[in-house]
Amino acid sequence: MRATVIGATGFIGGAVVDQLLRLGVEVRAVGRHAPAVEERAGVEWVEADLAEPPSLRGLCRGSDVLLQLASYIGSDPERCHRVNTLGTREAVREAERSGIRRTVLLSTAAAYGAGVHRGIAVGQVTPGPLSVASASRRAAEQSVLDAHGVVLRPGLVVGAGDRWVVPALADALRRVPAHWGGGQALLSLISVHDLARLIAGITVVQPTPETEGRIFHANHPRPVPIADLISSLAARGLVVDPTEDWPLDRCLAALGERPGWVSERQFRLLAEDHWYLSEDVWNAFGVAPAPEPLSWLTDAADWYRRHLAETDRHSA
């Protein structure tokens, strides 16, 4: 079996390539620039750019599955549209021309937009993405669904290489040294390792009418209270566990008064329920999630420690 992996140099894409190779899948790894690494058995590197449709020609030839794991998450509306929406559409068309049996798109739970999301199923909440990046990724889903592919919407992806979730929480706690609502907000998390195992598992399973043309939430089935995440990080010296509980208005005031990079919207993502029912995807494709939703932290703690220390040096 061979899989074409767009976004193979990314945080998630790199982990997926590793998992595919473990399953004996040959990989056509696609990136805008092939990395300067030694040749790796089972991996063929190809340079292509979603923003340049001609570069995608022939990309899927000889492959069985297309994994579209790349996205532009910046704020340039034109680039969001070209890369995420049009680029995905052209990649799917190329896959169809090549006779690919399955296409998988890595989307995002940010497609739902603002609001408290408490144990929602796919289709229960009408998407309303707030950013141009999330809106363009939501639009990209339709191309894959029309081609009877699989769309995955993870919530917060964590683990070694995560430069957003735990760093954002560290920034928020430095500026708002307190819980809000007792730290009871429930979050959908998935480790990059588990997400990669899931995507690799989907790659090797034969398509069925029950799994194709569907959107799945891709998270650990058990949501995590934010207080548990914070205490687990604090136990490893990555953050300070707050002892106080503040009302929302005081939290937002403190966030605005102290310099940092986490916005009010991002703070709410961590401090309010963002929990998406995710059992279906594991059952549908026969992949088992990690036994515990925070088990990834044992292996990732040292990476986070180095990354947070480097971030502190650059901001000093």
What attributes does this structure have?
316 residues; alpha/beta; 10 helices; two-stranded parallel sheet; 15 strands; 7-stranded parallel beta sheet
Protein topology:
Layout: E1 2-6, H1 11-22, E2 26-31, E3 43-47, E4 65-68, H2 77-97, E5 102-106, E6 117-120, H3 132-146, E7 150-153, E8 156-158, H4 165-175, E9 179-180, E10 186-187, E11 189-191, H5 192-204, E12 214-217, E13 224-225, H6 226-235, E14 245-246, H7 248-257, H8 264-271, E15 274-276, H9 279-285, H10 297-315
Parallel strand pairs: 1-2, 1-4, 2-3, 4-5, 5-7, 6-15, 7-12, 8-11, 9-14
Antiparallel strand pairs: 10-13
Tell me, rounded to a whole number, the average pLDDT: 96
- End-to-end distance: 49 Å
Percent of residues in beta strands?
A: 15-25%
Estimated structural class: alpha/beta
Bulk shape: globular
Side-by-side strand order of the widest sheet: 3-2-1-4-5-7-12
Question: So how many helices?
Answer: 10
Radius of gyration: 20 Å
Largest sheet, strands/sense/barrel? 7 strands, parallel
Order of helices and strands: EHEEEHEEHEEHEEEHEEHEHHEHH
* Residue runs with pLDDT of under 50 for 5 or more positions: none
Would you count the extended β strands for me? 15
**Helix percentage range:** 25-40%
